[in-house]
Amino acid sequence: MMRQPTIFSDTLGLFPPWQVTTVAFSEEENRLDITVAFDYSNFEICPDCGGAIVPTLGTAEVWHHSDFFQHPTYLYAHIPRFACACGREVPVERPWSRPGSKFALVQ
Hints:
Layout: H1 5-12, E1 18-26, E2 31-38, E3 53-68, E4 71-84, E5 89-90, E6 104-105
Parallel strand pairs: 2-4
Antiparallel strand pairs: 1-2, 3-4, 3-6, 4-5
C-alpha cells in the first residue's frame, strides 16, 4: 500500500474539507485505488444566506481515470449533502471533477 496521500491530494487539487485517506496500488491489476474523505466539521455555513447547515444523507460515488500517474485509477468518495434553514440544498464541490480532469463518474 502506498502512503503518499499529500502527493495525491495536491495532484487532485484537494484542499480541506477534502483529504486523501488511502492510496493502494495493485500490481496484479496494474491499478491505483484512491479513497477520499470529507471533514464535516469544516463545512458549516450556507454560501447563500450565511445560516447554519446540517448534513443529510449523502451518496457513494466511484470515479475512473484511465491514465492517472500512468495507471488506471479509481477514486472512491462519499459525497455529503447539506441542507440549510433557508430551504436550500447546499452542493459540495468535487475538485477531481473539474473540467479537464479526465475523471469520469462510474456510479
